[in-house]
Amino acid sequence: MMMSFKTPLLVFTSFLLLLVFYFSPSNKQPFTINTGYFSSNNTSPLFLYQRPQSFSSDSTSLASSSTTNGDNESDLAITSATSSEHTHHREKLTSSEKIEDDLARARNAIQKASRTRNYTSDRAEDFIPRGPVYRNPYAFHQSYIEMERTFKIWTYKEGNLPMVHDGPHSYLYSIEGHFIDAMEDNTNPFAASNMEEAHTFFLPYSVSNMVDVLYERNAGYGPYIRVVADYVRVISEKYHYWNRSGGGDHFMVSCHDWAPLVTSSAPNKLYKNVTRVVCNANSSESFDPKVDVSLPEISLITRTLLIPTQSRKLGPDRPILGFFAGGAHGDIRKILIKQWKDKDSELQVNEYLPKGTDYGALMAKTKFCLCPSGSEVASPRVVEAIHANCVPVLISDHYVLPFSDILDWSQFSIQVPVNKIPEMKTILLAVPDEKYRKLQKGVEQVRRHFTLNRPAKRFDVTHMILHSIWLRRLNFNLPA
């Protein structure tokens, strides 16, 4: 009799606990695709798990394309149809409606993955994002899977070399040229076979090459502004895609410092709706994180895919507390160099290293690599630090960090306000060993996302850039 009494009691208690867990707020983390939220100092975006908001008054986001049931969970109406019903439904759609149907199904799958804390894939996954470095690993993984299943990009063929269809492949702006090449490669799995099936359109011009070709002292930005405006004129007169969306399903990519200014200065707010993928992601200027994408700045060694800190022996021995070497470009670096240059053997701040000194080897022996902004907000030292397994110390104002809609930078980097530069050594020494080990583990986890491969590989930097574009396309709807 005692056993018969305990059994239903245990079953009832277990069931009650499951109900409590399921309806607990900690288990409800709906995925937000809108990424335009910032902390008070505007140095890093806050990824909020809430319903997405519209990018603008004339665009429809995930929030407005879904219905709400009594449990306050959004479900897209299209998912209620059976497979055969859905196929019959799609046959009646125009090409534009099919594109929006694709995106609606992707949104629904992402929301479901976030609610159920699981993902659905039709293949054996070779990488599954886990851990605190990801703001929502379930939603991110499902979003990535949906991108691979769905996303198609048309790269415009118009324009001539060297300003279009080419870009730098070495040194500071190298990611610009490599991305253009990757998009135009015959093996690009995201390339649309025709314009009608494209979810987004790539403007393959290079601001870096424009500057090389057109630069004249005291000429100002006028020549480059005319080129980017003229490119839009050509494609908008030849095709209807730009005009139907006001450029909202178009994107451009540039690592040159002048790219945001050149595009934002185009006449008639031409690039207002375009997703601008740029290294100079300064939220205090024209960069809009709700629409634009922060591009990692990667300085490559000539004729290689390597940065100075790759292919280094990375051991546990890191005798240098903090390290920086670079020119005094910009106010932040000037403050850092004035305060710390050649003043401390543990916190090594150099303006220029002696000839023959191995920069990459020094970073590989350092616990914390200082990454101050230069003339503009971005710095290649962030990616160099990650590949040296060195915890990045971010010193910047208004810098929107790359992939911060997916990655939680607080889990693998430290942010030091500019006014705390005099306290730098005290701040770094105060980091407990356990926290440092967690930060370094986070650096190891995210390294794949900042690695350039040709051809591109799953979850590498090229695909992460595409995923950032994909997220913003999910939050834009073509006019009905």
TrEMBL record:
It is found in: Golgi apparatus membrane. Residues 1-28 form the signal peptide. InterPro entries: Exostosin, Exostosin_GT47. It comes from the Eukaryota. Residues 137-428 form the Exostosin GT47 domain. The keyword Glycosyltransferase applies. Pfam families: Exostosin_GT47. It is a single-pass type II membrane protein. Keywords: Glycosyltransferase, Golgi apparatus, Signal, Signal-anchor, Transferase, Transmembrane. GO terms for cellular component: Golgi membrane. Residues 85-100 have a biased composition (Basic and acidic residues). This is Exostosin GT47 domain-containing protein. Residues 56-68 have a biased composition (Low complexity). Belongs to the glycosyltransferase 47 family.
